[in-house]
Amino acid sequence: MEEAAGKDRTLRAEGLVNARDLGGLERVDGTLTPSGVLFRSDNVDRISPDGWQQVHEAGIRTVVDLRQPGERQKDTQKRPTWLTTINVDLDGLENTGFWADYWNNGLVGTAMYFVPHLNEMPERAGAAVSAIVNAPPGGVLFHCMGGRDRTGIIAMILLSAVNAGTEEIVDDYLETVRLGDTRAASDNRNNAESLLNELCERHGTTTEGAFRTALAGFDLPGFIKAAGLSESDRAALATWRGSVVETGVSPSGSEPPKGT
After folding, report:
1. What tens digit of pLDDT does each residue of 205-253 get?
2. What is the pTM (predicted TM-score) of this model?
3. Count of other CB atoms within 10 angstroms of residue 216
4. Burial tier of 6 (Cβ tally within 10 Å: 0-12, 13-18, 19+)
5. What residue ranges define each of the domains in the chain, with the CATH number in brackets?
6. How many CB atoms are closer than 10 A to CB 231?
């Protein structure tokens, strides 16, 4: 179901400060991405019992956790029995050769690592995408710790797959940046966004510019092929689990299945 343009997409769940529906964004053909299908957020271990009730009321039934195993081991809260959780380690820290160029220098906190990561380890994001599009019925929420960059990579893929407009995709990423003070307060720390922007500037860009460059350089068909996504994965991705009726060519480069 489409939502009116400009509608607040915030997912209000007690404990989350950076959570929203990916629905309601304008696509290239003028239609909107469907609401109630895919959601992004910060760490769900912060959700209170009342917050989980709010998540349930939003129609979400599956969480795809993009964090590293060590991060998950620090979780302390019980999750409701109606929830399906799927763990996908997006980072792949065992690939030390790749991370040597992005971890200790802070670039892991910027979009400058997005496309290199997708090129080096496409199977990681491919596993996350496959988990999302093949989840049990109901809305799917994917998250990392802050809901900024790992979640940002997956959101970029999902929104590109249904031809969301460039400015809409950029603005969705920047919404997390705009929430910097709120996110920092929830972690009892200082807002690092200005420092991250300064880091980007030292590399000749900005926080926004780095993401725009990543989005412009993202080869969706190439990623789909490199990630080894199946035909059913491709169809589910192109239609957001059957919620989008495609009128053009699917991301796989073939005509979309009829009747989706």
Report:
1. 999 999 999 999 999 999 999 999 999 999 999 999 999 986 443 444 3
2. 0.92
3. 9
4. exposed
5. 20-238 (3.90.190.10)
6. 10
